[in-house]
Amino acid sequence: MLGTRTMIEKTVVELASALSTGSVSSVELTRAFIDRITTIDTQLNAYITVDEQEALKQAKEADEARARGAHSPFLGVPIAHKDLFCTQGTKTTCGSKMLQNFVSPYDATVVARLKDSGAVTLGKTNCDEFAMGSSNENSFFGPAYNPWGKNRVPGGSSGGSASAVAADLCAIATGTDTGGSIRQPASFCGVTGLKPTYGRVSRWGMVAYASSLDVGGPLAKTAHDAAVMLNAIAGHDPKDSTSVAVSTEDYTQSLDAPLTNLRIGLPRQYFSQDLDPRVAAIIQETARNLENLGATLVDIDLEKSTLSLPAYYVIAPAEASTNLSRYDGVRYGYRCEDPLDLEDMYTRSRTEGFGNEVKRRIMIGTYALSAGYYDAYYKKAQRIRRLIKQDFSKAFENVDAILSPTSPFTAFELGAKKDPVSMYLEDIYTLGVNLAGIPGISIPAGFINGLPIGAQLVASDFREGLLLNIAHQYQQNSDWHKQKPSMPMGV
């Protein structure tokens, strides 16, 4: 049998092999992760909900299925879900007081597909309230912590999932990405995070923040693991009107393809004087490593990239103000006590139920959509969005993928970002990818003062296989993704 510590450090691919050979059972593996969570998560707050009884039940069923001859890459592998995915019979809080006691009556499509593949759900991970944030400090249940540094943020909004994967509190986790919320936490926590093409993964049952931007995807230890999860969750879903009926592929099949003849673009605008020179040096070194693997480096321009930040922070809040109007204290969710009348119930339920950042974005979005300002703000932001998409499309006429930093900085300390604008700048390199609807991936590429730095790779629509191929080849020739934080860390 494998030792407990050895078990939880393994990748999904390695665990699937161990489970298939009988080196470990799913019950043993699940128990090991639960014990790890019990010991370590008091420091990290990566989980909002852990369902030990249900996890062990699923693990037992997975072992029985294997005994009957069943096989699946996820059969018996313990995973976690960002607490934005509806899970039947388990709380789905979205990190908010508004939904702190909401128990979903159904599974999100992503959850259902992973459950059908035999994955064991350990619990739900911490996140910024309704996915609004870049640091995981906006959760009603308290901030999640980065296992790489005392009082460091794990990034947001999928910070709990990234922290859990980095600290071996699950084998792999789901996240959501509206403006960088998979890739930025992946960078901060030294894991691999994939944001698929918009429409590639079903949004049904994934609680909406900004409907034209939200995408679900994996936070994993390796690109290979991310490919395995994408195989399970990608594909058309008739329940989701934004799901695209484009055929999927086996994303593990192209991982070993050589990078010869690939052209990788380096956008001049992303390497400006505003970028920390230490981060720039790491990304340049990543580029040289990819060149040594056979790729050709090309300098490119993404001239409209500077417009991503203002465009995003008009479009996303506008959609959020519409999506969050359903939380009114009437049908489900938080309701204030002893309301005087209907208007008082609406007002107080929303005032008491939402946190400050959510209120801020609702107000911004409502203003942008209001009479007299719609054309000046929302409509203009959508026009800029089209220009950003055209910018990427033009670049992809000459290159196969684009390499850039994921974030301009390493993980910062809790409370370090005092004003919203400085926080919003954390996503400056990721926002354009969501506005364009194209896929992106962040992979560990180095360290600065003991804190991870991620490199972002971007490709054109539905070319997740190419991104995973490049990331896998890089990880086969580097060991940044194998580095482990020291735990316990004494938070």
How would you sum up this structure, described in words?
By secondary structure, the chain is an alpha/beta fold. 38% of the residues lie in helices and 13% in strands. It has 16 helices and 11 strands. It has helices spanning 4-9, 12-21, 26-44, 52-67, 109-116, 159-166, 183-189, 223-233, 277-292, 308-323, 342-353, 356-369, 374-395, 420-424, 431-436, 464-476, and strands at residues 47-50, 78-82, 120-125, 173-177, 192-195, 215-220, 263-267, 296-300, 401-405, 440-448, 451-458. The strands form 2 sheets. It has an 8-stranded mixed β-sheet, sandwiched between helices. It has a 3-stranded mixed β-sheet with strand order 1-3-2. Helix 10 packs across helix 13. It is globular. It starts with a helix and ends in a 15-residue tail after the last helix. The mean pLDDT is 95.
Secondary structure: elements and pairs:
Blueprint: H1 4-9, H2 12-21, H3 26-44, E1 47-50, H4 52-67, E2 78-82, H5 109-116, E3 120-125, H6 159-166, E4 173-177, H7 183-189, E5 192-195, E6 215-220, H8 223-233, E7 263-267, H9 277-292, E8 296-300, H10 308-323, H11 342-353, H12 356-369, H13 374-395, E9 401-405, H14 420-424, H15 431-436, E10 440-448, E11 451-458, H16 464-476
Parallel strand pairs: 2-3, 7-8, 7-9
Antiparallel strand pairs: 1-3, 4-6, 5-6, 5-10, 9-11, 10-11
